[in-house]
Design brief:
CATH superfamily of one domain: Valyl/Leucyl/Isoleucyl-tRNA synthetase, editing domain
Shape: elongated
Structural class: alpha/beta
Strand content: 15-25%
EC number: 6.1.1.5
CATH topology of one domain: Isoleucyl-tRNA Synthetase, domain 2
Cofactor: Zn(2+)
Subunit structure: Monomer.
Radius of gyration: 38 Å
Subcellular location: Cytoplasm
Keywords: Aminoacyl-tRNA synthetase, ATP-binding, Cytoplasm, Ligase, Metal-binding, Nucleotide-binding, Protein biosynthesis, Zinc
Length: 949
């Protein structure tokens, strides 16, 4: 009967469970952090340190969080936590965008469904409904964010609808008013006829849209050269509804144009034989094909020769025009004209296009108002008065109802050459999803030039760090080419444009005292004061309210969010923060959104960007790279992932992904994250078990440790350097690959595998076991702290398992200081080669196991034949310990033919011989000495360990 040594073996022991059960664990830890006041303690601990302020880009308070929100907030939290543990004071104040059309649209829906007109509702009451709607969703989103493990000042977040915020937004607008850069102008802006308001570029998304196309003849009435007398200039457009607004035709001065004569026409063609037309030479063949006719070229001329040519409007002679189109249409050179499509001529409607407007202003053209806010033509528009330029069909798709009447009217005058359809990318409202139009409207603008705002912004971009760096070029090109900033909206919910306009001069009142009174009222009562107060309250006793009009437009919400740096980073409500922010972090679409508006606002008022660095991440797609949509059934809701797997799995997905590009997520990807998490967790669990009962008295200095332990310490120095580089660069996916490999390959498959025998079976006082436990203690401390910003719940659980405490937390710690003297490149190179030799041995034994000649590697005592160089490398090492065999014989010689070899490890061969002797009942090694020791069935080492207790 063999002896039972089970109770003498130092098996790992820990209360840290194998299964994370994160959906249950995480809420418990959140409650604990709340109880111990973790956020307040972090602030107290970090007081006086260098500040790192990641300023939160405000999400919109109008619905549950989606996976993009989770990505964004987790990444922010990871960076804030890591900067805190690097030794900085990294405070995070979350915030929300509350004003604007999405919320207003929701409240309007309620009125529309009940058959009421929102405009008949008292504006203050309506605004209060919007305010309550936003407050409701802020409460919901706050809890969803907190559940993701996001740490921040949740008891005191910022919102754009507080009195403090609105007063600062008003004051910031006042700075643009007072320096003269805020002005009122009429120019075409992107307009939603559905929502009846102007939209900013950041509120626009592009989708495919089918448009009616028309080729229209403009008869020449004054020819600049004889060749075009009696001809018609042909334009092509995808917006027939803009034809009533036409006032000119643009050409390319350097292009070649041809005067052609229609020789023949196919049945159904609108071209008349003998018609003389002017088109671009490069496009004449395509125009003929589109018009279903054949051309004969009569003349060729340069575009510049057309200067001075005048046409009349193609609808001038329509029987119901009644003089509505009785004006001349000049030909003007336009640098924006291309020969990609069309005819080489562009019809110019100055009220319906940016290029059109600039060309019209340059030449003093009249800029007519043709389309009302609701998308219907004004009553004065000849032929088409009251008709809609855009509507939604029964199939849900938008179309232009007036396109057919325009075609009919052009046909009636004989000036329609052809018509067709084209599918192209077209601007849509990201809220209503309806196509937009360019519409000339009176709006408030901030000039990009009058105070040098464009130049300041471009310099600020050059001075800012962008991660990734290509973000600099993206936002730079946008600023370089952008028009003046349209900051007015014709809506009700938002901060009003607090401007009075002099009735006599039409100029805005620029008075600091007036602005100060408005700001003070907003601070005390909120922006509703603009609607509830008599103008005399703000104008003061020295001005007659009858002399001024009070502006009723509201501010673009992007101006609101562009001011957050002013009322959060500089505001009195968060005195611990500092300006400028260390980092702004949002999705890549914010180059034209929040990054952009914040840049312009800050450069206009402070002369520099409100941030030192900008980080952008991509969008989240499904596993096949498709955009998520309910119709496709591929939406991954963060709430569902957290409820079934835990927030740490989502956090692991974020940091394990290259978020500089678009990210993918789905069941299989999440399953992979769960597998990675399990390996990381098992590493922590093994370390905790191995350190059962470990005390400081057991520790050994590095100088007294075996080479294997010193190699592990060296690996920590490498990881520490990578870790700090990753934190500085805000890029973690490469680091997580290294951390995972360290745990799975370096530790579990190598170091733990080798040291398992010493850990379990050596005497408690043995140098080898003490060294192993000392290193494991260091590794556990480093891993737990390194993982804390990323797997914030699991790291906390592991920390408390190692350091039980009522109020302790790993998040109150700093990252470990890894001594530089642990770095040993020569030792690392040596052990890389040793691991290669070990790989040959384990490869040979794997065959023996597969063939069932042995059950475990301890049943083998292989012969290892190595080159002289490798033999010298292995001198002094216990290769049986390293290869986990009961014995090993190392021979200096040439690899033997027929023995196991690996091509990638030359100079090594293995003969996998069985071990001889008896099996030790304690360590399971097969040794000749078993049976000769003092304790029955044990080897000498185990016998000594039993006696030592």
């Amino acid at each position: 009967m063999s002896a039972d040594y089970k109770n003498t073996v130092f098996l790992p022991k820990t209360d840290f469970p194998m299964k994370g059960e994160l959906p249950k664990l995480e809420p418990e830890l959140l409650a604990r952090w709340e109880k111990i006041g973790l956020f307040g303690r972090l602030r107290a601990t970090a007081k006086g340190r260098e500040k790192f302020i990641l300023h939160d880009g405000p999400p919109y308070a109008n619905g549950n969080l989606h996976i993009g929100h989770a990505l964004n907030k987790i990444l922010k939290d990871v960076i804030t936590r890591s900067q805190q543990m690097l030794g900085r004071d990294a405070e995070y104040v979350p915030g929300w965008d509350c004003h604007g059309l999405p919320i207003e649209w929701k409240i309007e829906e309620k009125y529309r469904e009940s058959g009421k007109d929102k405009d008949e509702v008292d504006i203050v009451a309506f605004r209060e409904e919007c305010r309550q709607f936003a407050a409701k969703w802020i409460g919901i989103q706050k809890e969803e964010f907190k559940r993701l493990g996001i740490t921040g000042d949740w008891d005191h977040p910022y919102t754009t609808m507080t009195n403090h915020a609105e007063s600062v937004i008003c004051a910031e607008l006042g700075k643009f008013l007072l320096d003269g850069s805020l002005y009122k102008g009429a120019k075409p802006v992107l307009w939603s006829v559905v929502e009846k308001t102007a939209l900013a570029e950041a509120e626009v998304e592009y989708h495919d849209h089918t448009s009616i196309t028309i080729w229209v003849k403009f008869p020449v009435v004054t020819a600049s050269v004889p060749e075009v007398e009696g001809a018609s200039v042909v334009i092509w457009t995808t917006t027939p509804w803009t034809m009533p607004g036409n006032r000119a035709v643009a050409y390319g001065a350097d292009f070649d144009y041809v005067v052609v004569e229609v020789e023949s026409a196919e049945p159904g063609s609108l071209a008349g034989v003998g018609d003389r037309l002017v088109v671009c030479a490069d496009l004449a063949g395509q125009v003929a094909k589109d018009a279903k006719c054949a051309f004969k070229i009569l003349h060729t001329l340069k575009g510049a020769a057309l200067a001075g040519t005048v046409c009349h409007h193609p609808l001038k002679l329509h029987e119901t025009a009644a003089g509505g189109y009785d004006f001349t249409v000049p030909l003007l050179a336009g640098g924006f004209v291309t020969t990609d499509t069309g005819t080489g001529f562009v019809h110019i409607a100055p009220g319906h296009g940016e290029d059109d407007w600039h060309l019209g202003k340059e030449h003093g053209l009249a800029i007519p108002d043709t389309v009302q806010p609701d998308g219907k033509y004004f009553p004065h528009v000849a032929i088409f008065a009251g008709m809609e330029v855009l509507n939604q069909g029964k199939n849900g798709k938008y179309y232009s109802p007036v396109a057919k009447p325009v075609i009919e009217a052009m046909t009636a005058t004989g000036n329609l050459l052809a018509h067709g359809k084209v599918e192209h990318s077209y601007p849509h409202s990201w809220r209503s999803k309806a196509p937009l139009i360019f519409r000339n409207t009176p709006q408030w603008f901030i000039s990009m030039e009058s105070t040098g705002l464009r130049a300041k912004a471009l310099q600020a971009i050059a001075d800012t760090r962008f991660v990734p760096d290509q973000g600099r070029n993206r936002i730079g090109s946008m600023v370089e080419n952008r028009p003046d900033w349209c900051v007015s909206r014709q809506r009700a919910w938002g901060v009003p444009i607090t401007v009075f306009v002099d009735k006599k001069t039409g100029q805005p009142l620029r008075d600091q005292g007036v602005m100060d009174r408005i700001v003070a009222a907003f601070k005390a009562e909120g922006s509703d004061a603009w609607f509830t107060s008599d103008p005399s309250r703000f104008l003061g006793p020295d001005r007659d309210p009858a002399d001024y009009d009070k502006v009723t437009d509201i501010l673009d919400v992007w101006f609101d969010s562009g001011c957050t740096h002013a009322f959060v980073l500089e505001g009195e409500e968060w005195p611990r923060l500092s300006w400028p922010a260390s980092l702004y972090l949002e999705g890549s679409d914010q180059h034209r959104g929040w990054f952009h508006s914040s840049l312009l606002e800050s450069c206009g008022t402070r002369g520099r960007a409100p941030y030192d660095a900008v980080l952008t991440h991509g969008f989240v797609l499904d596993e096949d790279g498709r955009k998520m949509s309910k119709s496709l059934g591929n939406v991954v809701a963060p709430q569902e992932v957290v409820g079934s797997m835990g927030a740490d799995i989502l956090r692991l997905w974020v940091v394990g992904s290259d978020y500089s590009d678009d990210l993918r997520i789905g069941p299989e990807i999440l399953k992979t994250q769960v597998d990675i998490y399990r390996r990381l967790r098992n590493t922590l669990r093994y370390l905790l078990g191995a350190l059962d009962g470990f005390t400081d008295a057991e520790k050994l200095p590095a100088a007294e440790m075996p080479e294997l332990e010193r190699w592990v310490l060296h690996r920590l120095t490498e990881l520490d350097a990578q870790f700090r580089d990753a934190c500085d660069g805000f890029q973690f996916h490469g680091l997580f690959t290294e951390l995972h490999n360290f745990c799975a390959v370096d530790l579990s498959a190598f170091y733990f595998d080798i040291r398992k025998d010493a850990l379990y079976c050596d005497a408690a006082s043995s140098i080898r076991r003490r060294a192993a436990r000392t290193v494991m203690d260091i590794v556990l401390d480093a891993l737990t702290k390194w993982l804390a910003p990323f797997l914030c719940f699991t790291a906390e659980q592991a920390w408390l398992a190692r350091h039980p405490s009522e109020d302790g937390s790993v998040h109150l710690e700093l990252f470990p200081e890894i001594p530089a003297e642990w770095r040993d490149g020569d030792l690392a190179a040596k052990w890389a080669r040793i691991r290669d030799v070990r790989k040959v041995v384990t490869g040979a034994l794997e065959i023996e196991r597969r063939e069932k000649r042995i059950g475990s590697s301890l049943q083998a005592s292989p012969r290892l034949t190595v080159s002289s160089e490798i033999h010298e490398l292995l001198t002094g090492l216990d290769m049986a310990e390293i290869c986990i065999t009961s014995g090993i014989r190392v021979i200096d010689g040439l690899p033997a033919e027929g023995e196991f070899q690996l091509p990638e490890v030359p100079g090594v061969s293995v003969s996998p011989n069985p071990a001889e002797g008896e099996k030790c009942q304690r360590c399971w090694k097969v040794l000749h000495e078993v049976g000769t020791a003092r304790h029955e069935g044990a080897c000498h080492r185990c016998s000594d360990a039993v006696e030592a207790g």
